[in-house]
Amino acid sequence: MGIISWIVLGLIAGVLAKALMPGKDPGGLIVTIVLGIAGAFVGGWIGTQLGIARFDGFTLQGILVATGGAVVLLVLYRLIKKKT
Fold first, then answer.
1. Secondary structure of the chain in the HEC alphabet?
2. SS3 for 17?
3. What is the pTM of this model?
4. Mind listing the pLDDT tens digit for each residue in 51-78?
5. Higher pLDDT, 33 or 80
6. How many domains does the chain have?
7. Is 24 helix (H, G, I), strand (E, B) or coil?
8. Cα distance from N-terminal residue to C-terminal residue, the chain
9. Which residues cross the membrane (predicted)?
């Protein structure tokens, strides 16, 4: 999957993560989308390492793994911003 596909998938994952974890985030929607893009990479890497994800394009599995990575990063972001 190309870098553009990862970015688009990350945008989708960021929006889904925001829907799953509503609330006032310190960075707003833009930071959530950036976290979604990073979450797509993190989720994809973790999924590949665990052997549970293989990305051949936009699949339900790919979207779920990317959204999971985005949720993890969003939780970490909220914890870090809460402490500072």
1. CCHHHHHHHHHHHHHHHHHHCCCCCCCHHHHHHHHHHHHHHHHHHHHHHHCCCCCCCCCHHHHHHHHHHHHHHHHHHHHHHHHC
2. helix
3. 0.75
4. 876 655 677 877 888 888 888 888 888 8
5. 80
6. 1
7. coil
8. 37
9. 27-46, 58-80
